[in-house]
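Researcher: Let's walk through a ligand-bound prediction step by step. First, I give you the protein sequence. Second, the SMILES string for zinc ion. Third, you return the three-dimensional complex as structure tokens. Ready?
Model: Ready.
Researcher: Here are steps one and two:
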Amino acid sequence: MNALILVDVQNDFVPGGALPVAEGDQITPICNALQSHFDLVVATQDWHPKEHGSFAANHAGRKIGEMIDLHGLPQILWPVHCVQNTAGAAFVPGLKTDRIDRVFQKGTDAAIDSYSGFFDNGHRKATGLGDYLKQRGVSDVYIVGLATDYCVKFTALDARELGFTTHLIADACRGVNLKPGDVDAAIEQMRQAGVKIENSAEVMKKQS
Ligand SMILES: [Zn+2]
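Model: Step three, the predicted complex:
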């Protein structure tokens, strides 16, 4: 059983959003085309309360991009993004959602950030995604979305750790590249962890 995981395909992560990923909107048609090749499609959604600790605006005197200690974990400060029930947190308008079986929201606890779709950054609480996939008999997960060097990477690494055969569909992801080279380094880190780096054309051929 194969599952497609759509990571954070949300308005705030595409051009025009609060935390835009360059070309983030270009993955939407690929995400749509891929969905019909999978029996199970799930999505993650960054879903923050407005007082979330990852927002620079919630730390007096701190700027976006600075690193702080957030309750014992290193935390990069981001612009306010993906606030619950705002347009920025909604899936991008072009994304097909009728085949999404379940949406797993993350980052809902103001005290801790959550890049991975499976766990928060301290691995303290699970979102339920791992158990859901195991209950459905999923062996292989295929990961697409935003952003390659954060939420996609940590979702893929956790998927490996949970024992799933993990595939990254690289052309259906885009990254932040806060530092030049971050995306390449993220892909290399995933590869070394045993994630299979593939592209959408070969996946659709294999899954047809
Ligand atoms: Zn976030």
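Researcher: And what stands out?
Model: Residues 73 and 122 are 7 Å apart (CA to CA). Strands lie at 2-7, 40-46, 67-70, 73-76, 102-106, 140-146, 165-174, 196-198.
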